[in-house]
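FAQ: What does a ligand-bound record look like?

Like this one, built around adenosine-5'-diphosphate:
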Amino acid sequence: MSESRALGVLERVFGYESFRGDQQAIVQHVIDGGDALVLMPTGGGKSLCYQVPALVREGTGIVVSPLIALMQDQVDALTELGVRAAYLNSTQDWRITREVEQEFLNGQLDLLYVAPERLLTDRCLQLLERGHISLFAIDEAHCVSQWGHDFRPEYLGLSMLHERWPDVPRIALTATATAATRSEIAQRLALDDARHFVSSFDRPNIRYRIVEKNEVRRQLLDLIQSEHEGDAGVVYCLSRARVEETAEFLCNNGINALPYHAGLSAQVRAQNQSRFLREDGIVMVATIAFGMGIDKPDVRFVAHIDLPKSVEGYYQETGRAGRDGLPASAWLAYGLQDVVQQRRMIDESPGDEVYRRRLGQQLDAMLGLCETVECRRVRLLAYFGQTITACGNCDVCLDPPEAWDGTVAAQKVLSAVYRLGRERGQRYGAGHIIDILRGKSTDRTRQNDHESLSVFGIGADLSETAWRGVLRQLLAQGLLTVDTDGYGTLALTEESRVVLKGERQLMLRREPEKKARSGRGGGTRTKAPVIDLPAEALPVFEALRAWRGEVAKSHGVPAYVIFHDATLREIALAQPGSIDELGHISGVGARKLEAYGEEILRTVSSPRL
Ligand code: ADP
Ligand code: ZN
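The answer part, i.e. the structure of the complex:
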């Protein structure tokens, strides 16, 4: 019975024909009153997992979300669908708060979004006691994990929901979770009896590429100009300063870029975020402070110009590309300096030994991904405990790197580090070591009499890029380490000696030199048209987009809240002649059909008007 009700809601309200993946099972489980822990990649369709049960069950669904800045958009999107939704957070004045509270008490809300700190206030808890709750949805549930970078202490208080409302089903959702994080979430939210729904984390439409960093801003610009001209994208940087300078660089080169980091005022952040969501083709240059909960479906690329700190964070950030299922890029540029810098940051980070060791392990996993000669996606999913076969849509699959025997080269590097390490009080970084190996005479080599060392010039056979690759890989594999002196001085490790003594053969990844030079990244320049339409459908599609733009503007919502590109594409293809035909198109629910049906039919029949 409720099975068909759920499907009915999916069709009528959301305009979708069928559930995807685990959605049906999850929805059913929650409708039947069960607790659930849902792990689905970004873009997998988590929202429906609580929205549909909230519409089927009696009462109001309470959605706990840390994303105050997005609540208005979320509620607007639901209102467009005809769902009775509202939110309570600190941005509202008391009059609106009163109204929302009254609506809740009157049973006039299907969904109510609340920030966790708000939920835990006495006033809010008492309010909830007096109303009728259909379910609790705990969105972004990984915020409860103390090891993650999105940790929110307020989330720890949410285990109380279970004690206070033992009969109300709870559904916790997240796009990021290794097995360890998953059990941490279950434990901290007291989800002991919850069923776990773990979807495939694969996002086949995202093309993964990791390139060697040289002039990174130029490489980034090349990527955008050659493959993503006019596309919306996110560029992640590690520091605020880097965000600022990169955004400025892109703007100076004709790219519509905006900065976003925690150092900007709340107002500027909100404004930039809103422009990113509402305008076409904006590139957001940001720290990881940006992006959680951004459900913009048409982000075409996510670029990292600094090495992310963990695979988990990286996967979540890249997952923000291509939520609409159309082709998208995840592009990361990384180099020797990233490894040195991050190792140093870990050494200097506050926290105990256990904490630093954990950071070190996370970095190692990230480096392993960067240096792999195996399919990137195989590696990524393995991190989440999932197995797939080579994907055919990553740089390694498309342009397999060669492996070469780097044992002798490694021995040369390690000997040079060893020789220099005996000079007390001296600090030599990677650049100097490479100069010595290549026999390049510089002020430093002359002043320090390094040209008389036996290792001087023993590596003239390899280019500087190649040597950087060797050093980087030695660092990545723990065969070299960065001294804790704060200067990035290289030092040997226990493992180094095994290689020096010739007891271990070392296979390395060959740097594709020409490509790295030209800055073309993975080399594939062909841009697949994202909206693939026959010529006769194009004017209709464009007319629909223009119409959508007007409506979105007058409603003050992002265009995709009115209709997704994918829906407009289908309309342009089908060219429906009646309301009934239009209603069969995926993404056109009852409310939108009623509100916009006539205008769409008019636009379709005379696109030029
Ligand atoms: P998540 O929160 O997991 O990142 P969303 O809930 O935002 O993902 O869903 C991603 C996109 O997929 C949305 O645009 C949504 O409308 C669409 N979607 C979700 N479920 C379905 C479905 N069963 N059929 C068609 N489209 C769906
Ligand atoms: Zn692959």
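Follow-up question: can I read anything off the structure? Yes, for example: Residues 515-525 have pLDDT under 50 and may be disordered.
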